[in-house]
Write a structure and sequence with these properties.
This protein is α/β, with parallel strands linked by helices. The chain has two domains: 1-32, no CATH class; 43-114 and 145-229, Rossmann fold, CATH 3.40.50.150. Helices cover 34% and strands 22% of the residues. It contains eight helices and ten strands. The protein has helices at residues 9-18, 23-32, 43-53, 74-87, 104-112, 125-131, 147-150, 184-196, and strands at 63-68, 95-101, 114-116, 132-134, 142-145, 153-157, 170-175, 198-205, 219-223, 226-229. The strands form two sheets. Strands 6-2-1-7-8-10-9 form a seven-stranded mixed sheet, with helices on both faces. The protein has a three-stranded antiparallel sheet with strand order 3-5-4. Strand 4 (132-134) and strand 5 form a beta hairpin. The longest helix is centred in the middle third of the chain and has 14 residues, at 74-87.
């Protein structure tokens, strides 16, 4: 309101509702979303991915993964590094990570793939050398992901409560720390839409502060924050 010099909330509200371009609503969403994330956040998920899921993916012709609510990109890039580490560099040709978020501001950061060095505390020295480019000059103290990582990830804007246009089925979807902001009816709607996008036997990872208790879905509980679509 201050930036646009509106005098009252009602005046600003009318502006957002009547803006046919959608830009005012997008700016409001950017102002409201928190976008808190980190690399390899919730390590239990990555441990489960390495030990229980990836061994069965070695012979797959393609590996599509959906990082829903990807925020500023740390989650999809962590996934790409994890799979390249475990499956080898040859997996780059078949790895396709769809990363979506509602915030244009967050997606702009994600697409840039550039982060301050202190954000990479979870990376080993070998991982830093292999998957990141060290900034020089004005970019000193920053890293950018190498093409082997960025080429595996594509970013799109998506509101999870609106219809999904992609028809692909995924063996893994991550939708973490988003549903805590939804009421129960919206949670059920989103979870069932996500479940419909899973392959039979595919996995859904949610946040450890979230639960699907009381929601009727075709998903089977595996362990905290991990569910699987029944074959």
């Amino acid at each position: 309101m201050r930036n646009s010099r509106f005098r009252t909330f009602r005046e600003y509200y009318r502006h957002v509702v009547e803006d046919s371009t959608g830009q005012a609503l997008a700016a409001l969403i950017d102002a409201l979303t928190t976008n808190f994330t980190s690399f390899f956040r919730e390590p239990d998920h990555f441990d489960f991915l390495r030990s229980q899921i990836l061994p069965g993916w070695r012979d797959r012709a393609s590996i599509p993964i959906w990082s829903a609510a990807c925020s500023t990109g740390e989650e999809p890039y962590s996934l790409a590094v994890c799979l390249l580490e475990e499956l080898g560099q040859g997996a780059a040709a078949k790895l396709r990570i769809l990363a979506t978020d509602i915030s244009n501001r967050a997606l702009a950061v994600a697409r840039d793939a550039k982060y301050p060095a202190e954000r990479f505390s979870a990376f080993t020295p070998d991982m830093l050398r292999q998957y990141l480019l060290r900034g020089k000059g004005k970019s000193e103290g920053w890293y950018r992901f190498a093409p082997a990582v960025t080429s595996a990830v594509s970013f799109e804007r998506l509101n999870l409560i609106e219809p999904y246009t992609h028809r692909e089925r995924f063996p893994l979807i991550l939708c973490r720390n988003v549903m805590i902001y939804f009421d129960k009816a919206t949670q059920a709607n989103v979870v069932n839409k996500l479940a419909a996008c899973l392959e039979p036997g595919g996995y859904l990872f949610i946040g450890h502060s979230e639960s699907l208790s009381g929601i009727d879905t075709p998903l089977k509980y595996v362990k905290p924050a991990i569910y699987r679509r029944l074959p």
